[in-house]
Design goal:
single chain, 323 residues, alpha/beta, Rossmann fold, 2 domains, five-stranded parallel β-sheet
Length: 323
């Protein structure tokens, strides 16, 4: 089997251990290209006659028409649908896999860091001091005893629940699949989405983006939020009506927000969030730690090994296998 990694980031090149490289090479020919291809045609040339692709960035659709040997695409991460046309892959008979759970700890810790930064005015205090302003008048929010509402309870949400309980917070949650066993395991109380939005002091999103969750929090839902609550999003921007959220932040109705994901990345220079001092932003880096990257790489090699054995795992389009 020929395996091509056409768009490897330098971090991934560095963290792909000799042991993992040897396992890939044992499956056949393995070729890694560092840095993004210049254009879609370069993607096609790099992939060529490969049977399997390890993918980081957006895969051009033309690959499916121009690379007929392709049988597997392994996306490094969770949200493969944002980077790979899964419908077109299925039509071409190409299996798409991903690496679920790789960053549960890293992303949950990032969400907590954003929450603490907003609640404790960390960024504003830092910038004031650097500007020669010693202002002790700004009061922070004590998190112990507050209620955080988690929307979604996958691996990241479960880890976030653990972290928040450790700080003495009450944790409520909305998920499409509640059960007493999940509530007991995670230490949360499941509630209806409307009740969560109305009652929580902090909202934190931990949902995957799909057709059922896209736009889940529209203007109507966001207007249910408690005054002076805090909004955290390390999941996907498309889950939320960004304009409505921005207006609530601009008006001061919400105390603040911590945001790691955006409708357009990189941010446009005129993005109104950039002008709000009650918003803490990071450039979609919640997933990025050496530990998480190593997890991704181990899961990727395992996915390829399972595929070579005729037992593909973490498949996003299982209908292809049944063909």
């Amino acid at each position: 089997m020929k395996i091509v990694y056409p768009d490897a980031d330098s971090q991934y090149v560095e963290l792909l251990s000799p042991e993992l490289r040897a396992r890939l090479q044992s499956l056949g020919e393995f070729i890694m290209y560092e840095k993004m291809p210049q254009d879609p045609e370069e993607y096609v040339r790099r992939i060529g006659d490969a049977e399997a692709v390890i993918q980081t960035q957006k895969l051009p659709d033309r690959v499916f028409d121009r690379c007929p040997n392709l049988k597997l695409i392994n996306y490094l991460g969770i949200g493969a649908g944002n980077f790979i046309n899964i419908q077109k892959a299925s039509a071409a008979g190409v299996i798409v896999t991903n690496t679920p759970g790789y960053g549960n700890n890293t992303v949950a810790e990032h969400a907590l860091a954003l929450l603490l930064a907003v609640a404790k005015h960390v960024c504003r205090g830092n910038s004031d001091l650097r500007a020669g302003i010693f202002d002790q008048s700004r009061m922070s929010l004590e998190l112990a005893g507050k209620t955080i509402g988690l929307i979604g309870l996958g691996g990241i949400g479960e880890r976030m629940a653990v972290l928040c309980r450790a700080l003495g917070m009450r944790v409520v949650c909305w998920t499409r699949h509640p059960s007493p066993a999940r509530a007991e395991r995670s230490g949360v109380r499941f509630v209806k989405l409307e009740d969560l939005l109305k009652s929580a002091d902090i909202i934190s999103l931990h949902l995957a983006l799909n057709e059922e969750t896209r736009g889940l929090l529209g203007r109507k839902e966001l207007q249910l939020l408690k005054p002076n609550s805090i909004f955290i999003n390390t999941a996907r921007a498309e889950l939320v009506d960004t304009l409505a959220l921005t207006e609530l932040l601009q008006s001061g109705y919400l105390a603040g927000a911590g945001i790691d994901v955006f409708d357009r990345e990189p941010l446009a220079e005129d993005n109104p969030l950039l002008g709000l001092d009650n918003v803490v932003m990071t450039p979609h880096t919640g997933f990025n730690s050496p530990d998480a990257v190593i997890n991704i790489l181990h899961m990727t090699v395992s996915n390829l090994e399972q595929f070579a054995q005729g037992k593909p795992t973490n498949v996003l389009n299982p209908e292809v296998i049944r063909l």
